[in-house]
Amino acid sequence: MINLTPIELACQLGKTVFAETKAGYDSWLAAPAIQRVFGFDPNERLAQVHGYESAEILSLADSAAIKHRVNQLHWLPFADNGQQLAGQHVQKRFNIKQMTVELIHSDYDGFVQQMQAQWQYGYQRTADYIQQHGL
User: Fold this and answer.
1) pLDDT computed for residue 54 by the predictor
2) Angstrom distance (rounded) from CA 41 to CA 34
3) DSSP 53
4) pLDDT at 21 over 90
């Protein structure tokens, strides 16, 4: 099975881990597709990932090393990227005749604009988080 968000491994290997909050997968297209291909419900896994700090790290908090790690997992506020970056993603449509999902790409200038908007959004959110938390 493929783990698309290996937060547990990242926390074991790194002293400081930055993870992004994500919006749930839509139940009409994305969740069933991921379930079919990878064999797990992505929204259940997403809930496990978002709950990892309190459920996994804090349950082991009797160790000094683990207590120190509690403050090392930082959740970056990206769950609203769909709203903030509306129109700045590759578009998708369902082709009912072929039973496929088609990706609709913009021209080169549109692609450059999308990438710059996504990068700026992520950079600014991360910089704001680091500044707010004195990191």
Assistant:
1) 46
2) 7
3) I
4) no
List pLDDT tens digits, range 39-78. 889 999 888 888 887 445 545 555 555 544 455 889 899 9
Answer whether 66's CB lies under 8 Å from 56's CB: no
Q: Token pair for residue 86?
A: 């509306």
What the block records as the tokens of 24 is 């749930």
**What's the one-letter identity of residue 36?**
R
Position 121 pLDDT exceeds 80:
yes
Residue with the two structure tokens 């459920």: 55
Give the closest residue to 57 by CA, choosing from 44, 74, 39, 79.
74
For the chain, the 3-state helix, strand and coil shares in percent, each to the nearest 5, are 50, 15, 35
> Using CA atoms, how far apart are residues 55 and 23, in angstroms rounded to an integer?
20
Q: How far is CA 62 from the centre of its chain?
A: 29
The average pLDDT across 104-133 equals 92
Angle at 99 between CA 93 and CA 102, to 5 degrees: 30
